Amino acid sequence: MAPIPKSIGDFVVLPLSIPALPSYPKAVIHHIYVRKNAPKNPTPDDERSLFVTNVPIDSTEAHLRALFVSLVGAGRFESIAFEDEKTGAAQTPAIQPGQAARLSALSKKRKRDEAEEEEAQEEEAARLLETWSRPLRRSGSTAVALMADEKSADLVLKAITKLHKTKKYPVWGEGVSDKVPAMGSAWLRSHNQMAYPDKVDVQSAVDAFFTVFNRREKEAAEMAKRLRNEPDEDGFVTVTRGGRNGPAGKAEAEEARQKMVAKQDKKKSELTNFYRFQLRERKKAEQAELLKKFDEDRKKVAAMREKRGKFRPEA
Description:
Elements: E1 7-8, E2 11-18, E3 28-36, E4 49-53, H1 61-72, E5 77-82, H2 83-86, H3 98-103, H4 113-125, E6 142-147, H5 150-166, H6 185-194, H7 199-227, H8 250-310
Antiparallel strand pairs: 1-2, 2-3, 3-4, 4-6, 5-6
């Protein structure tokens, strides 16, 4: 068996011991790769965050918490954000109406305290009912682990490096069996039950969804009404539809202005290219004319030389 490398590029290699299962009665070694988090858009927590890739498909927060506790002790690990959770792959439909999505960037005031908490509760109630007691991750998926501080993140990387000397690899899932739902047949049985929820619960989720949807649509309509006839930075109001009775909102006016500027830039570019084409053609014509004159002069010189060769002065 080839030795396990300590690092690959910027990643340190963390071997995990996967215990034998009834479905596969053989212990195996699984490798995950860890490095300091360095996203394209930096955040204040990057220094104390770790980017983890190739996490096992049955990973949960309890699994990762137990893993980091085995490496650096308790109190160092804060939270984990898996790839599907970061990209918003949850089973939640878009509650944002089209008009509200266009005008959300223009809102300068947000409700606070009780009103904001009430909205959060409504949105939580509008989520679709879960059909799995425990999610499975995509093979080779990633996660970002948030540690207590930058020192904790550095200690994790050092602890992983030391593992290659001791060869005592952490056992995956050790100590979390009572904290997460079981996999296997029990997991499938629970899915079969959750896939057919009570009609009352489904109706409640649907009602909550439309409550949130209608509220946002109403807020968007009121915002559009307030923004009507509001001039842009140049002091103009662009009407794109509705005429005098329904002038466009600021977002629609800005969209129309951008389209007009893009159209003018395109026209200007085409005109510039046209003049360049004319310039090239004119240069080609001038060059052809020079070559023609040169050829004519060359023929005249040749004729003069030929005539001079035949000339014989009288003795």
